[in-house]
Amino acid sequence: MTAIDLRAAQRPNAPTTTYRYDDYDAAFVRERVAEFREQVRRRLSGALTEEEFRPFRLMNGLYLQLHAYMLRVAIPYGTLTARQMRRLADIADKWDKGYGHFTTRQNLQYNWPKLVDTPDILEALADVEMHAIQTSGNCIRNVTADHFAGVAPDEIEDPRPTAEFLRQWSSLHPEFSFLPRKFKIAVTGAEHDRAAILVHDIGLRIVRNAEGEIGYQVVVGGGLGRSPFVGKVVGDFVPRHYLLAFLEAILRVYNRFGRRDNKYKARIKILVHEKGIDEIRAAVEAEFAAMDRSVFAHDPDEFERIAAYFAPPPYETLPPTSDVLRAAKLDAPAFANFVDVNVSAHKIPGYAIVTVSLKPIGGVPGDATSDQMRVLADASERFGFGELRVSHEQNIILPHVKQDDLFALWRLLDAAGLATANAGLVSDIISCPGMDYCSLATARSIPIAQAISKRFSDMSRQRRIGKLGIKISGCINACGHHHVGAIGILGLEKKGQESYQITLGGDPTFSASIGEILGPGVTAEQTPDVIEHLVDFYLAERVEGETFIDTWRRIGHARFKDVLRREGEDGADI
Amino acid sequence: MALISNGRFVEDAWRRLADEEALPKAGKVIVSLPRLQHALEVVGPEAALGVIVPNTTEPSALIEASPRLELVSISFPAFSDGRGFSLARLLRRAGFKGELRASGRLVADQYSHAVGCGFDTIEIPDDLAERQNEEQWRAALNVYAMSYQRGYSGRGSILEARRSAARS
Amino acid sequence: MAQFKHPQILIASNLTDGEVVFLGPSGWERDHRRARVAQNAEEAAALEASGKRDISANRVVDVYLADVEIGGDGAPTPMHYRERMRVKGPSVRLDLGKQAAASGGAP
How many domains does chain A have? Predict the structure, then answer.
């Protein structure tokens, strides 16, 4: 590893735009590292059997996969600093194989760490205020949030103070660390949902009531996996004062009554489904009424203390549009395409939000080399106040870039292979690691993503197709969110071969829907052909302004099913 | 069975009574939940009464007996089954002041969780106690100086500490 | 003792580094071509007994038997694509895993 003086790299005058540990946080994370070091030692000595060790290593993000251990590092609410990104790169070089994989839960996975090295990796993470706490296990997982938090024009409130508050509350919770199953919470403060909150165990939407008071709409029992469900509202308006008490009540009801007889029926979504939302709401409200809520009452000082860290960076006063940008777009058509596809509106005039795609044509979705991580860290410091985000679409976001700087940024990204202009397009594919890495997988998913991406390598064709989310999972656990892909692909095993089931019409936003199955599974070789036929059919059928899912909703699933059937009967290549 | 209290392996002053054993006149005995009602009726004040309950027990089933009960032992059918932690919390909330015991194959790494939820003692099988000795249990109590949660027992709360730091 | 239609090898993960290992004639091997092959239930049970012993000794975890076919060179190759992946490495990164070492690539 290149020796980097982290204190020098950290610019003391740089503004804080994300949470910083105080002495308590720092001590807590060091204590967790020390505890894990001891747990590893006790595992090696036999004081802990594998069965006993497993939940504790999982609660610290350590899996045993097909080829090696895998360490999942938490990136709370997907926000990280340049310094943290550099440290992730250094860890990849020193203890892994020079790359990392950004996941659909805004985390980062290393695919090759040794068990005996993990305590040192965790120590290196703690140096930059990072950890792997509760990135797996039957506990409250890393809290995710809108990756445009704080910069989106459609936002009521930045969801990250809430998410950070919940991160702390859920860390090593005495009562809720041995739940029936994993528990995922996502928060959004915007009018458009970019955090898929309706398919989480708890989704929180920051809302304002008629009196102008801030509160939360609380949605429970959403989830993907074997039985996908869209979450249901359990609290329409929970004032901030009672948020924590309300969450404690939900978790207690789940911990006591969630099923433990069958791990496929253990998520809270099954409890909600079997009992009905009304019974669950009644149970939660009864628990809420019985508890001493004063203990969990909102602490405005503490919330303010946290929120202050997420203060906006010192933006310049700029005109809403940039002449520099306009001129550069005219000069460089490739850059113009990048701006049109990967750049989003910012709430501050003259600034923009840039999505850096980790989906190069034919690449592994979500993977970044250590060098690319360093380029991203540099880019964020030069052009974006040193802050980066990870999106659940497995891309990196630079949330505060001056429009005047976009061209220079693009050139820097382009030189590092990071300027693929496909954000939200057909080749911006979400994919889990699948059977190339994961021990739970039933089929590979990355090669399918690569084949589809190559099939649509013509970027002008991609732009013509427009917004289209393809999401691929290598098993029914649905880490690749296939249920909520406009086109979802699920890899299964059929008679000893990999087989792919295609679904259409999934949607992860506030208009959430679960995709419908298209027909019998197809082989890996057939999959790109089928996808191409479906896309061509949509192009032929769409009316002005429609995206794939709009057309699907308008003309119906049956018409798309016919495409597959017709192609099959023709004896074409399906 | 080994009993852990305050980070030490201690002698168990209580005796678990098999259902076919006669109720004694004196001493400290733990009966099963189905036998509790009868025991409450016939056991005199010279004897101390405890009960062992499944982790699915409704707390209300014990509240009535609570003034007379000096110990409640909650079974952990598997160490990864966390229902006992919530039951402990609910019994404390209902005002149970006696000894709260977790009984099962709990591992040392769960000790501070158990204390946080109101347990006083942990009862584990001997084979587990052999692998996870007293030193490991004692160490487990002191891994964390403080915890993030408020309203749980044991360690001090980081939130409270921040509050008082802000006040001073 | 009836011979297996498909012989079996014992596959596991090394506890300390997580690498895939195979029970060989005298201990765990990182190369599946050196795996001991069980031709019948009795031999498979012997493999499993060794595996159990080494689980207890905290050397390996996640131990199981996998069906193989024997190639012309006498080396076993797993029947299922999952285990075929495990003896090589990720199919999308031929520069990584056992396949990299085998082809003289990066260690």
Answer: 4
Q: Is residue A113 pLDDT above 90, yes or no?
A: yes
**Identity at C49, one-letter amino acid code:** A
Residue-averaged pLDDT of chain B: 94
Do residue C92 and residue A112 have CB atoms under 8 angstroms apart? no
Shared-domain flag, residues A56 and A121? yes
Q: Tell me the CA distances in angstroms from A549 to A107, A473, A485, one per residue in order.
A: 28, 19, 9
Which of 3.30.160, 3.20.20, 3.40.50, 3.30.470 would CATH assign to domain B2-167? 3.20.20
pLDDT tens-place values along chain C, 107 residues long: 789 999 999 999 999 999 999 999 999 999 999 999 999 999 999 999 999 999 999 999 999 999 999 999 989 999 999 999 999 999 999 999 999 976 654 44
For residue C32 the two structure tokens come to 């599946």
Query: Per the structure block, which two tokens stand in for B26?
Result: 């004196």
**Does residue A327 sit in the same domain as residue A304?**
no
β-sheet with A387-390: strand ranges across: A79-81, A387-390, A396-402, A351-356, A343-345
Judgement on whether residues A276 and A175 belong to the same structural domain of the protein: yes
Residue B151's closest chain A neighbor by CA? A295
Question: Is residue B68's pLDDT more than 70?
Answer: yes
pLDDT digits (tens, 9 = 90+) for A494-542: 999 999 999 999 999 999 999 999 999 999 999 999 999 999 999 999 9
A30 CB neighbours in chain B (<8 A) are none
Residue A7 has pLDDT above 70, yes or no: no
- Residue to mutate among C93, C94, C98, C99, with most A CBs inside 10 A, is C93
Residue A99 belongs to some domain of the structure: yes
Q: Is the ipTM of this complex over 0.95?
A: yes
Mutation target to probe the A interface, by most A beta carbons within 10 A, among C14, C52, C58 is C58
pLDDT for A10 beyond 50: no
User: A568 touching B, CB under 8 A?
Assistant: no
> How much is the pLDDT for A172?
96
**A224 and A336 assigned to the same domain:** no
Asked if A387 and A287 sit in the same domain, the reply is no
Q: Could you count the other beta carbons within 10 Å of the beta carbon of residue A79?
A: 25
Q: Measured between beta carbons, which residues in chain C are less than 8 angstroms from residue A52?
A: none
CB contact under 8 A, A24 and B161: yes
| Domain-embedded: residue A141 | no
| C59: nearest Cα among C12, C24, C9 | C12
**CA–CA–CA angle A134, A135, A136 (5° rounding):** 85
Instruction: Tell me how close the Cα of C56 comes to any Cα of chain A, in angstroms.
Output: 8
Selection from A498, A505, A509, A456 nearest residue A473 by Cα: A498
* A440 and A496 both lie in a single domain: yes
| Predicted pLDDT of residue C103 | 63
Show the domain range for A166.
151-309
CA distance A531 to A526: 9
Rounded to an integer, the average pLDDT of A224-229 is: 94
In terms of domains, do A92 and A157 share one? Answer: no
Report the residue count for chain A. 574
Is the pLDDT score of A123 beyond 80? yes
Same domain, A376 and A288: no
Are there at least 3 beta-carbon pairs closer than 8 Å between B and C? no
